Amino acid sequence: MKPPTVFRRALAAWLPAGDRESLLDELDALFSRKSATRGRLAADFWYVRQTLALLIHLWFERLHDAVGGTSGLRSDVQLAFRTFRRRPAFTVSFVLTLAIGTGVIATVYTAARWVLLRPVPGVQRVDELATLRLGSVEAPPHVSWSISHLDYLTFRDRLPVAGQLAALTPVDVDVRPDGGAPLRVSGALVSSNYFAVLGVALTAGRDFVEQEETTAGEVVAVVSQSLARRISSGSAVGTRVRINGTPVLVVGEAAPAFRGAALPGTDEIWLPLSALHVADPSMGADAVTQRGDPIWRRLVARVPAGSSTTALSGAANGIMENIRAEFRAHSFPATHFRMQVFAGIGLDPSVRASVQRTLGQLGIVATLLLLLSIANLANLSLIESTRRSVAGAVRVALGATRARLATSAMVEAALLGIGGTVVALWLAYLWSGWYQGTQLTEHGGALTGMQVGPKIAGLTIVVAFLATGIAFLRPAAMVRTWSIDRLLRRTADGAPSGNRLRALLISAQVALSLVLLVSAALLGRTVRNLRSIELGFQPDRVLTFSIDPHLHGYESQALDQLARRLERQLVEDGGFRAAGFVSPAPLRSSYVTTSLYGSSDPAVRPLIAAGFYVSPGFLAALGARTVAGDSAWRADSGTAVLSRGALARLFPAMSPHDAIGMTVPTRPKQERSVRIAAIIEDVSLSDVTRETAPTVFLPLAERWAGLSLTGFVDASGSPRARTSIVRRVMAGAAPDIPLFDIRSARSGVDLQFADRNAMARAAGTLAVIGLILAAIGLYAVISAVVATRRREIGIRGALGAAPDRILRRVLAGGLVPVMLGLPVGVAGSILLGKLLAPQLFGLNSLDPVAYGMAVVLLIVAALGASLLPAWRATRISPAEVLRDE
Amino acid sequence: MGDKAALGEFEHHVLLAALRLGENAYTTSILQELETRTGRELSPAAVYIALRRLERSGLVRTKLKRAVERNERRERRYVQVTPAGLRLARQARQRLVRLWEGLSILASES
Questions:
Q1: How far away is chain B from the Cα of A518, in angstroms, using its nearest Cα?
Q2: Cα–Cα separations (whole angstroms), residue A129 to A167, A344, A738, B70, B101
Q3: Interface of chain B toward chain A, CB-CB under 8 angstroms
Q4: pTM for this entry
Q5: Model ipTM?
Q6: Which residue from A98, A493, A787, A865 has the highest number of Cβ atoms inside 10 Å of its Cβ?
Q7: Does residue A257 sit at the B interface (CB-CB below 8 Å)?
Q8: A80-138: per-residue pLDDT in tens?
């Protein structure tokens, strides 16, 4: 039996001649023996391992010998540093260009790893876990539903995962340590086996027991290490805190890195099912025992070896069908519901696809910049190598071997690579900090806590050295051509070398730069179009913040009174022009609907409007313009305010003034109605990218339970000043209720197109960097050309050529590769534009303004980069040149 | 490496195996000798690399010689331990013996 041919040949090529035959024979004999005893496959693997071990050793041996051992290496390093000191411009340009191209890749990979690829910290054997949720093929990916506790237990008993099925629901709670200020904390309601299924260790105390799923008693919680440090000076186990006003005993602290089963992890507190009423006061005491009451948002299973997500999905949907058949009440009333199964845990499945798309596009743009950097590096090293060809030829003539010169150049390249890597890592660290907290989609994928880790460092080293290696390929090949004969011949006829390759590299840089500029222009114009959508109010003049009074028992009338009191205090104590509250939170792409019946005819479909429950001051704080009716509407019970668009759809022929006072049913049998108190101009409080939805505003007192309140204040001045005023007033008026999500309404609107924002920011930055790199490359090449043609230019000047003619000639020479690169860049932009097309808004991927802007910017940059060396060419003194002759 | 440097554990084993095998020491025979005596499966690449290091340090010398086996004639690189190698092996043994002295509790394990 023969060993794998490719590997045998590789060994034959690299083994020393004296050992080749004997060692190969011995390995062949051993291979035959292994095949007979262990089988062919095992023998093949064994042979490959032997080959790799031998090759790696032989390569290192040769490298060590080539650099002349340790002493030879030392002298090469000293020579390299002397060169760097003598050529600072080349050194700095090379290192920075390498660092920028590599650093961008490292940053994008850091982001991808942080939200997509890294294992969830603190969890054991993540690859054995799977996430299950109740979704629908008819609903957007981010929409999912919850299942009841009894249905979860049925899944736990019947799913083929040996009972290793945990359940969780994300919750946000107000935590008040003893004597401390209230904190808004993210966490989860979890089943008793949550920590066991995930394999998360606790550093102190205990996790939950099964009795704590159903037995009412003292409410307990497990906290993260970071929350433990904030609520207690020592161990938090045994500490009591108030959660939504209810005393809770901390019984455990999770492992230091564990922050929940999601990425990026933000959970800091975990509550058992018996704390359901604490986490959500709107849930009744019997919710746990009602099969129709949804509680659990996600299930996490530890899947046995050999099982697949497809099989698990089939089993889960089969169980769902059985539940539908066996029980009257259950969690799956809609026929389009499906149990969806996703491999692993981490990034929420609902946002995974869009985060992957955004990061994929960022990766493409970053790769383009890396290629541009490599082209720039190749140009720089080519110019430098040409410049050194004289000295190199003289050294060869004096006895230095070309191998020695090549080794010396390799050491210099390695040191530049090391320098570039170090700076690249620093840039990746810096840029990761700049993009900290950036949200990649509206519904998740925030780059919170993003860090550059050891794997990123490894990738950076590999990319930097690959880029350096590619950049030095041609110069390394040129060392072979260094000879005194060639030098003398070239000096005689003055022909420069390497011009064609340099021009080609410039064209490549121009093309890549144009692609980056066009994509940045398309995305930038998209964001601009999105931000200039008429919303019916001024988002830059409105500050929003959120509170959760329902967690503290405020509902209906009590909630309404609280909201009125708070808005009064914000105006009187805070000095805001107007303040108000609304629920549910506006400025999200999804919204709650209210039906309005314009006709008693059952055949006529009702108007489905976006419904918002508001306090009296809300519309004034929003800056909504009243068209008809009471501009000082007091949000009295039984009344409503409609948008102009809602009225037009409800009663197309009716004028706004005629609608005032009309009563419109909100139920099909007219058991409930509202009286129209006012009509306002259309405002867009939901998905701003779609047509403005008809909107109805109802009194806050009529809102159903369980939703947070969003406060709006209308003010001018610095956002920071406004924020601190809001904090001060709210701390005085409602000290037990913490604020969260304080931001301008503009930020809230921008969040709806967070992915496009992130892409536009990144693409814009990379496009500017790419343009600078291309300009540097062009400048370096034209400078080199002017230097090598100095004699020609001087002679032309001596013969009477005017300076402006010399200027035009040099400029034309520099712009030719630019013009050649432009059509290639346009073609590349069209291709990338197709990829970006779904992200664009208000323009298509062939937008002439974007292309025009990019081309003009590029030509201006190219002209600017060419002007200085061209001007220097006009300053060449003919007298000096002739004297040198 | 050299007289003043210490032998790595594996290189020490390779040296001892080569001494045992005498004139019949080459990569495969050393490998088999080590596997038999240590009870561990070893890699011929590791043995070859160790022999190269020992040769570059002057502790062994190697020579291509024709081997006659089952009527086949093939060349093999045979290994011979140099006086420096022998000296280093003896020093390594003396160090080990001195370290082992008095450790009866470990020596009695079967």
A1: 54
A2: 13, 5, 35, 58, 54
A3: 26-28, 31, 43-46, 48-49, 52, 64, 74-77
A4: 0.71
A5: 0.85
A6: A98
A7: no
A8: 888 888 888 889 989 999 999 999 999 999 988 888 877 888 898 888 899 999 988 77
